[in-house]
Protein 1
Amino acid sequence: MEPFEGKTISWGEHNGVIELSLHRGPCNEIGSETLEELESFAEVLRTSAGNMHTLIIHSVMPAGFCAGADLRELYRRAYQQPRTSGNSIAEVRNFLVRIHAVFNAIDDAPLVTVAAVHGVAFGGGFELALTADLIVADRTARFAFPELRLGLIPGFGGIPRLKRDLGNGIARDMLFTGRSINATKAQTADLVSQVVAEGEALRVAHALASQVGKFDLNAVRAAKKFIKPVPHAELLREIDIFCELFESPAVAAGLRRFVESNSPLPYLP
């Protein structure tokens, strides 16, 4: 695998471990540029992951892992450019289909994936973490689905994946309240496999990778396929519901409040 240094993400491989680094300020918001680079990574993952045993996803940004979708870009593209409602929805749907394809490729990759999380993992960032087989969180990590504040539901596959991993109880609580949970509560709920000291998540993720590398790759792949099926039908339904809701005036109002906010971190619940 050839190393890559992009504007929003980078990746490289060493001793069977792929490291995907997120580095778009302020907190790795996922917009069109990040999506394009993630699509390139997904293609590399499909063609080059055969001899790798672990993928580690982490952020180098101080604010956290990922704050989710780039809502300012979404607002500009949907409401500040001359276009019809139908074109806007088609563009939103196309973006969702593309991001789902990337997240499904990570979710279903034939290796063990570890998300090393610190700070904010909200919305689409939480959904990216949920594609991983294991989440290692440092004590600063916070997880949330704040989308209902905007009149939407999570759109990057979060609800089906959270239900798959934890069941309806925690999924409904996080969805309906929009409140965040810290690393300790996330571990109690079995969302997080390990809670570590601040700044230690990436080191511990590499230690996990070293353990995974001791096992037969075929056995690892068989175990993953058995224990972690991708909920494709529910993921497709999520896209439909998101697009239905996006046409609501409440969404335009919610996004407008977000982009007009003076807060340096307006995504914090």
Protein 2
Amino acid sequence: MTEEISRVSQLRPARPHVVIIGGGFAGLACARSLGNAEIDVTVIDRRNHNLFQPLLYQVATAALSPADISEPIRRTLGRYRNIKVMLAEVNGVDPTTKSVRFDDGGAVSYDHLVIATGSEYNYFGHDEWRAWAPGLKTIHEARLIRQRLLVAFEKAERTDDPEEKQRLLTSVVIGGGPTGVEMAGAIAELGRFMITRDFRDLSPNHFKVILIEAAPRLLAAFPENLARYAERSLVEGGVQVLTNTPVENITKSEVIAGGRTFSTGCVVWGAGVKASPAASWLGIEGKAGGRIPVEPDLAVQGFNDIYAIGDTALGMGESGKPLAALAQVAKQQGDYLGEALKAKLLDGRAPEAFRFRDRGNTAVIGRNAAIFDFGTWQMKGRLAWLLWAMVHVYLLVNFEKRLLVSIQWIWRYATRQRGARIIDENAATQVPASTRRTET
């Protein structure tokens, strides 16, 4: 009887194996689309959790805790019995043997490979700045920024030196894109509240937030009228905005930009991103910031069994321009590719080309201020802020996170309290110089 079962098992065709590298927006969307299909799926990530990066700035400014916007990948995908999760650091791909290599010497084979390894901050040849100007791509970096902000206030409370007090209470945000704008507005709001309520020896006159942008204006991806509104709102909220001001150097306590020196207690980097080094794994040259060129079906050019999605992929929109590295692009590509792989592997059907459906571009500036660009029409102010909040709550990974974040936002709006103002006395004071990659 055992021999008969073994013989039948050998005759049964093996199920196709899809390996997905990256557990961010794109990778998780693809995995969910493949969930419970007659396909074996392995999701590999260097971290054990997914992260809702659009709200990471709120962790950095003590509005939310890391657990509010992240969840273990195993929990997210646990209900799909055909999906296996692996915690590993990928350092290479061998298309000849169809295997993915790990930095600990291990490997896993694949029939079809999906690369969704996201992006990292681009320091434009000055990676030494990373130690003093962390970006906002990981929980570690958000906690580090929060630590530096809160410690700076505590030190400023104790010092009797007016210049040192001014330095500690000056925060510099580099980059005038959505991340920089959101971060500058959030720091300004946090600082005003803490100084007026919780610190006895600090004055609002000492507090300063400086937003530095090398380009002529903020928010280059948005229409100019919305960018002007954002800048005006930031200035009204106490942020000093400097455009046409390229950064020349960053040290532990200073930023040199546009020929001027700014003494500071905290620096945040948000000046640009580049793709993960996944292109080098395939022995190809990345384009437009290291992104991997893909065909209309998201297959990597020159490979029929390897796909790239999310920030690491260079896909073209219907206008002929590259798709932006946005969460909505990554999620739609993941959903599409999961369904396309099911059609191809289970039914033998060739999928139609991927089409991105623009849901609008948004940025929040501060309390009751945000902008939305839907292409044919626009929105700004309180209504845009409310819509921004609803969209971001909806996009959180599950009902529990949506409920927790909603309650905290309502409480924070009513009281202006920030409940995540925890300082770890043993926390590291700088990020490692090594590159930190995030999966999207």
Protein 3
Amino acid sequence: MIFRKIVMFLKFIFFIFTFYHYGFFNFQTKSIEKFEGLIVSVNSNVLTTYDLSERIKLALRSLDLEDNISNRDNVREKVLELLIIEKIKKSEAIKENVNHTEDELIDFASMLYNFPRERFEDFKVFINKENGIDIDILMDQLSAELMWKKLLQKKFSSKVIISQQEIEKILEDEKKKQGKYEYNFTEVFFENKTSNDWSESKKKLKNFVSLLDQGISFNNLADKYGFGKENQDSELNWTIEENLDTKLKKILTEMKEGDISREIKVNDGYKIIKLNKKRIFGYQMLKYSFIKVSSFEIENLDFSKFSSISCSNDKFNIDSNISAIKLTDVIANEMISVYLEKLEKLEIGEFSTVISHDNQFSVLKLCDKKNELNQVEKRNKIQNNLYAKKFNQLASTFIANLRKNANIKYFNK
């Protein structure tokens, strides 16, 4: 059933507004919960214990975590902060006369949760009755984020200008970066509340690690903490090695893809990172075609048996102990790194030395190498990336300033 899939989909949604609610107790009735008590006022908009309870319920559901006191305590502070940010976003959108129609909200929900819009009523029943989550609270989240997106477009879309000089500079910089390593990693930072006091940041780090120990995906959990990147594969999320500080570069160099670092103490707190991918700069636009000759025993890879195989063939009959397969137009940054390192050194028609990988021995013959993008496509790609980067920077600065100047009053502190 399509809504059963939504439970799994919740785990990978990258919008932070999808995940956060909390509660101290299990109240006897919903009507009592909704008015149990005030927690915080945000620009005159109040948040109640019921608001927080429902948000944490959705967070724990999306993370596949048991709803218990320990898990609630681990995420409560961050959940509350994200709820405050949401209220700030919505109040600013209302002040700027930004709104949306009911149809726009339904379309937004159907896009995020991957259901046909004509089944919206079924979706509400699924969320409310089968998952025990207040659908009104969820729709309030979606409404706030939709209004925020529309506000950002209204304020900044016409202000982002990309010049030809900027594009030319990027092209020149890319020439200098060719052959250097770049890294795609997710970083979660836990900032000290006061200077030279690492106790609170260390506590937050331990809470984060305890959730990881329960089997939660690092990037999924990072999203919940508001530090995750919306699209890990985006070209905006790659950092060239020369732009890393010495300490971080050393750590990333020693990590394998998928590794999570130990705690890293910095001047104003702690951080922890996960290496998603690494690649050699420039290869993301290359495609390789090659023949892979393999055997489980290195002794079987007798060069005389396969030296005459041709790239013009698609099927090969070499030896019962040797397999051969032709791979066409494999994108470089999607290739196993040990294969790419061999292929980049070959001329077309040449064989590599023996590669040991995944309990198998292989030799590669390079058949073709081509650049995926022409100059026009490359310029368009650079322009789009520059636009997205500038737009995101404006949006980040905007919400940071709104948060700094917001009138926030805590009732229980």
Protein 4
Amino acid sequence: MDSRRVAVLDRGTVTLVDPAAAVFSAFDLGPARGDGVFETMLVRRGVALKPEAHLDRLARSAALMGLFSPPLADWARLIDLLATTHADGEAALKLMLTRGIEGVSDHTAVGTLSPLAPDVLEQRRRGIAVVTLTLGLPADLRATSPWLLGGVKYLSYAVNMAAQRHARALGADDAVFISLDGRLLEGPTSTIVWARDGTLHTPPLEIGILPGTTQALLFTRADAAGLGTAMSLGTVADLHAADGVWLVSSVRGAAAVTSLDGLRRGDAGLTPTIQELTGVTT
């Protein structure tokens, strides 16, 4: 039985449709040009995790791209409808908003729900091997060049997916982007976090990276675990010198980096605490 679900949001009405049915026109600017935004959140036992944070970021991304977006209350109803169809285990719930069909409609709003890929759960348990890849831009360029859409979760993820394929071709699981001037940026689908001497670090948003909802939750809760937090312009050398390094995202949670550019590394026993703070445990 197909456990995937698809819902369409149209003029305030949320409708479940056949997962095999077409929901995007060939003329829709989302699939045609990647002109749209999206969010992906974890569903656990019928409940979506951090929906408000994802909806806030969806609204921010839409505003930065000049997209019309339905009211957040309508999106929330779509999330609830999809989430409650998956009562057992975990699933990934994705919201997609496009610019619609030029001259015909001003947007298309769709939600999907699908089971997690087995490797997601495995990477939570065993950790991941990571390679660093250049993004080919100075660290501060996206922050001062809004047309580059720094900090926007837009649909055109071809480069991000190519980076992950390249990482796998090198024998790794994932990648971390670095700037032309050697600064840490983010993963293709994650935020980079590292620990050193009792403090958690992550790159500052001012360099044009995507605000991480899971990283934000982790930093909010860190003080309760006796950990400090800092926004830091880090380098690859900082990762090698760190007590622990994690790629953090909503669906995978916190995956410990066990190898960086071919060099094995540990986590100082911190991974269970980090995963507990993100709310996504093994």
